[in-house]
Design a protein that fits this description.
The chain is mainly alpha-helical and 370 residues long. The protein has three domains: 68 residues, Endolytic murein transglycosylase (Dna Ligase, domain 1), CATH 3.30.1490.480; 86 residues, no CATH class; 132 residues, no CATH class. 49% of the residues lie in helices and 8% in strands. The protein has a two-stranded antiparallel ribbon with strand order 1-2. Strands 3-4 form a two-stranded antiparallel ribbon. It has a two-stranded antiparallel sheet with strand order 5-6. The chain starts with a helix and ends with a helix.
Length: 370
C-alpha cells in the first residue's frame, strides 16, 4: 500500500472514529426511516390499485352523511363490502392528502373498484344517479313495470320485494294498511325521484314511502280522525277519486258521492274497483259488462258494501285533499258528461243519472263516427 493510500485510510478511520456513538445511532435511525419512508410510499401507491373483488358486477348504494370523517367513511365502506379493510383505505386517503375532502352524497360503488377509484369518486362528489317519475293513479304493478322499462329495476324482483318486504314495522302509517301482499298499494307516493344507479329495490321503495310520510303528516291524520275514518280509509277513498275524476274540479264532488253512499249503506259501485281487479291480469277494459261486475273479489264494490280492503292505486296530493275535504252535496251518482271534456255530470236521483248516461254515450258514439 502506498504512503498516500495509507494516509487516506488513516484519515477515514479518524473521521468515523471521531463521530460519537449517539451521532452514529441517529444517522442509522435516519437511514432506516428514509428506507421505510420509501417503502411506505411504494406500499401506499400499491394500495391505490387494490380492490375488494375484481369480478364483482353489481353496485352498492352508499350514503355518506354530511360531516362524515375519513374514519367513519372507511368503516362504512368496509361494512358495505366495498373495501376489504377500512384501515387500509384510511391510510391510502392520508397518503393522497384527501383527508377531509370527501363529499356527502349517495354513491353507487362496486367491490370491483380500486381504492384510488373510490377515493376519487368521493372527493369529486361523483354521485351516479338516475331519475324516474311515477304518475298519480299508478298501481304498484304499474310502478314495477315503469321501473323495469326505465331499466332501474327488474319487474318481477321489484314485485317480490313489494309483496314480501318488511316495511310495515318501519312506517307507522302502514300499521293500518290491509293485511295482505298488497299492503303497500296506495302508499308509493307518485312523484319524480332521483336514486343512485344500481339502487336496490328496498332503497327505491323507501324513497317513495319517505315521500308519502313527508306529504301526509299529522294534520291529515287528525283531519281523518275528526271525520271518523282511519288514514288507510282516506287513502282508499283518495285512490278511487284518482281513478274516477279526470278533472280537478270534480275531485271533491266525487268524494262527496263516495261518502254519501257510505252514510246510507249504499254500495259504492265504482267501475274503478273492478278495473283494479282486472289490472292484476292486465285486462283493463274501456267499458265493463254485467259479467265483469260479477267478478268474485273483495275489491268489487258492486258486490261488497263499504270500502274495498285497500287502495286501488297511489293517489296524488290533490285526490288525498279531496278525500279529506269533500264537497257538501247530496249527489249519489256521476257519469262522464256529454261535453266529452272528461268532466262529470253529477245527480241526486237515479232517473237523472240514466239521462246523463244516455247523453254521454250518444255524444261519444257520435264523436267516434266522425
Amino acid at each position: 500500500m502506498s504512503k498516500q493510500n495509507r494516509m487516506m485510510e488513516n484519515d477515514n478511520t479518524g473521521f468515523f472514529a471521531s463521530i460519537g456513538l449517539k451521532t452514529r445511532i441517529v444517522m442509522l435511525v435516519l437511514a432506516v426511516m428514509l428506507v421505510m419512508s420509501f417503502g411506505l410510499i411504494i406500499y401506499a401507491k400499491s394500495l391505490g390499485g387494490a380492490c375488494m373483488d375484481p369480478d364483482a358486477t353489481k353496485k352498492v348504494t352508499v350514503e355518506v352523511e354530511p360531516g362524515s370523517t375519513t374514519d367513519s367513511i372507511g368503516d362504512l365502506l368496509e361494512e358495505k363490502g366495498i373495501v376489504n379493510d377500512a384501515t387500509v383505505f384510511k391510510f391510502f386517503t392520508v397518503y393522497k392528502k384527501y383527508d377531509g375532502l370527501y363529499q356527502a352524497g349517495v354513491y353507487a360503488l362496486s367491490p370491483s373498484m380500486t381504492n384510488d377509484e373510490i377515493a376519487t369518486i368521493l372527493k369529486e362528489g361523483k354521485t351516479n344517479t338516475t331519475s324516474f317519475t311515477i304518475p298519480e293513479g299508478f298501481t304498484e304493478y304499474e310502478t314495477a313495470e315503469r321501473l323495469a322499462k326505465n331499466k332501474i329495476a327488474e319487474e318481477q324482483e321489484f314485485i317480490n320485494t313489494l309483496e314480501n318486504g318488511k316495511f310495515r314495522k318501519e312506517y307507522s302509517f302502514l300499521k293500518g294498511a290491509q293485511k295482505n301482499k298488497h299492503y303497500l298499494e296506495g302508499f308509493l307516493f307518485p312523484d319524480t325521484y332521483t336514486v343512485t344507479v344500481g339502487a336496490d329495490n328496498e332503497t327505491i321503495i323507501r324513497a317513495m314511502l319517505d315521500r308519502f310520510q313527508e306529504v301526509i303528516g299529522d294534520d291529515q291524520k287528525t283531519r281523518a280522525e275528526k271525520m271518523g275514518y282511519s288514514l288507510n280509509d282516506i287513502i282508499i277513498v283518495a285512490s278511487i277519486i284518482e281513478k274516477e275524476a279526470a278533472v280537478d274540479k270534480d275531485r271533491e264532488k266525487v268524494a262527496s258521492v263516495i261518502y254519501n253512499r257510505l252514510k246510507i249503506d249504499m254500495p259504492l259501485q265504482m267501475d274503478s274497483t273492478v278495473q283494479y281487479v282486472r289490472s292484476f291480469d292486465k285486462e283493463r277494459k274501456k267499458d265493463l259488462t254485467y259479467e265483469d261486475i260479477e267478478v268474485d273479489s273483495e275489491y268489487n264494490t258492486y258486490k261488497n258494501p263499504g270500502l274495498p280492503p285497500g287502495p286501488i292505486c297511489s293517489p296524488g296530493k290533490a285526490s288525498i285533499e279531496a278525500a279529506l275535504n269533500p264537497a257538501n252535496t247530496k249527489y249519489l251518482y256521476f257519469i262522464l258528461s256529454d261535453k266529452l271534456d272528461d268532466s262529470m255530470a253529477f245527480s241526486k236521483d237515479y232517473d237523472q243519472f240514466l239521462k246523463d248516461k244516455d247523453a254521454y254515450y250518444a255524444a261519444r258514439d257520435a264523436a267516434e263516427k266522425d
